[in-house]
Amino acid sequence: MEAGSKKVNSIKHVLFGSLIGTTIEFFDFYIYANAAVLVFPQLFFPGANATVATLESLATFSIAFLSRPLGSAFFGHYGDKVGRKFTLVAALLTMGISTVSIGFLPSYASIGVAAPILLMLCRFGQGVGLGGEWGGAVLLAIENAPPNKRAWYGMFPQLGAPIGLLLSGGTFLLLTDAMSTEDFMDYGWRIPFIASSLLVIIGFYIRTKISETPSFENAKNEHEEVKIPFVTVFKEYKNQLIFGTLAAITTFLVFYLMTVFMLNWNTKSVGFTNREALLIQLFSVLFFAIFIPISALVADKIGRRKMLINTTVAIAIFGFSFPFFLNSGSTFLVTFFVCLGMSLMGFIYGPVGTFLSELFPTSVRYTGASLTFNMAGILGAAFAPMVAIWLSDKYGIGSVGMYLTIAACISLVSLLVISKEEHKF
């Protein structure tokens, strides 16, 4: 790309632009996750016992994972055809509008069954937006990266996940501390959903200042565009799509077991207060954030695939530890368990975005990486909290650990057989 013909992105601008967008997106996504456990069962699904109401609430949580591949296909098409910049802005607005709308929804007591239906529609919109956001943010970073620092650049949008989780969990914690339970359930829970509009405005401004990536411009100049990226991915890169999806399912499963499931387990089974459970979660997220950059540095030295293989083996072993820690009744051991799980999450999450992106050429990279990541979300996360709650109720907490170990074994096999071919950037 000629410096005189097109604005050149500064490294700080690129990395901050990829980080701020995913931080906003994941903040929006996680405030829903917290509310799905702490608020929505009572307000949108009354009349059932506590377990059934929680399962119904988590079913709406799953909707976003089912809609994320639709967002990947839609935004991926325009991201590969029109450009990364336009698509990133559109995905951010889709996510933001859906999130703010949740803050204004009436409860079941006000409009009956229409309330959970509207909640599901907003959750669907969140999924579509995030399905288009993640891939573009990762590509913004790695398509501007030197070849020997792709994992390092690619980890910046990944850092948006722990930062977004800290902001969302911290907001809920502050509100529950500052308000009575009645006021929080009446209107307090709406505040973070509505306040996210301020973050969206900031993200929108930053995203509009970013130029296209050199890789996309080069592919466009060399006429490498494909007519329908979605079709090309399924026809020519089927193995990368299938095995990449299976390779990434453990990333999703370990995260949502350590967050949504553990939030439910700690409040319902262990007997922690909402405040105590949120404090444990927020403390563990620090380990998640710390190990993302560490994993990226290691991945650039030993390879992204090898890093994921080693971490997946560790997660498979970690699955056997569930009964020891979670049946202990010890606050220290439960906290240590969640911190260990989130540390492993940091190790696997740091390089996974770069790894999935390297499976596809520039002409279909937005679509291919986004579809792979978000299809893994369906298999690894969409129903994970519900499955884990059902397993723990019926077979005990050890079965939840086996659930994770089996998923890790599937990911490990996929990582071992997946193509090692790296496409040009």
UniProtKB/TrEMBL annotation:
GO MF term list: transmembrane transporter activity
GO cellular component, one term: plasma membrane
CDD domains assigned to the protein according to its UniProt record, in alphabetical order: MFS_ShiA_like
Pfam families per record: MFS_1
InterPro entries: MFS, MFS_dom, MFS_trans_sf, MHS_symport, Sugar_transporter_CS
PROSITE patterns, per database record: MFS, SUGAR_TRANSPORT_1
Membrane topology: Multi-pass membrane protein
Limits of the Major facilitator superfamily (MFS) profile domain: 14-423
Localization in the cell: Cell inner membrane
Transmembrane residue ranges: 14-32, 44-66, 86-105, 117-142, 154-175, 187-206, 241-265, 277-298, 307-326, 332-350, 371-391, 397-418
Keywords attached to this entry: Cell inner membrane, Cell membrane, Membrane, Transmembrane, Transmembrane helix, Transport
Name of the protein: MHS family MFS transporter
Species this protein is from: Flavobacterium agrisoli
